Amino acid sequence: MTELPETGTPAIRVAISSCLLGEEVRYDGGHKHNGYITGTLARYFEMIPFCPEVAIGLGVPRPPIRLMNKGGEVRVVGVDDPALDVTDGLVAYGQTVAGRLNDVSGYIFKRGSPSCGMERVRIYPEKGMPVDSGAGLYAQTLMRALPLLPENFIERVFVYHRWQSLCQSEPAPADLIDFHTEHKFSILAHDETAYRELGRLVAEAGSGDLRQLLERYAALLMTAMKKRATRKLHSNVLTHIMGFLKDRIDSGDKAELLDVIEKYRQGQIPLIVPVTLLRHHLRRNPAPYIERQYYLNPHPEELMLRNSL
Ligand code: SF4
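That is the input. Now the predicted structure with iron/sulfur cluster docked in place:
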């Protein structure tokens, strides 16, 4: 297992479209090197590259392909020669790869590709310009086979990795309760309804089939984490956390916190500012329940890699 050079902890394994790492595997012999991925993310993740088009034997260079709606069915065909149809090969390869991703916690897909694109890939009619869009067929196959596997979102990769680690340890009901307790605010920032539903599920731990409960919990958790965490939802969570401090900090500190949360809500400052201020107050006024939350104490890398919300 690869270790992170800086911390010596095992690296989280993430699959990725090869061309994003700079591998010259595109149809024209080029790549789509992404400096953020190879410069920043690669310090925290072990990248496992896949190029489905090369893997199914299309070679480099190769004729370009695109999605086409053929009689109501989306196929992947040659741009210049629609008789070239590689749909079945890409789907079969996607199924093979899906079987090899058990220890992988996420997938970074190249945008816009008829093979690797996750969404909004142009679908051409048999004649004329595209009017529709969808997922590349290799990516779609993987997403259907592994519906919980996070694609392209850092926070979900970390949550899913922690979930995988929990499941590998043959968890007892108390472990599920701990996991849930530690992720409550993270879930709340994404989906309030799911947050309540997950709470109800966890309350059932200890009675009934735990394996089945874990499956239901995982499906609901990862669907909730897929929802966009808005500034409004984050602001609610931050205000909620502030509630735990209200009797312990003075009116000046309270006013400052409210002001910082409001500035964040209005988009004037990034999330890290109110989070850091809350952590500062929590250090001086310990509240064990809050301190266990990954929301305030994410994996250091997770914090650095959080999006700008
Ligand atoms: S098939 Fe995927 S990995 Fe290969 S070049 Fe296209 S986008 Fe990149």
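The chain has a mean pLDDT of 89.
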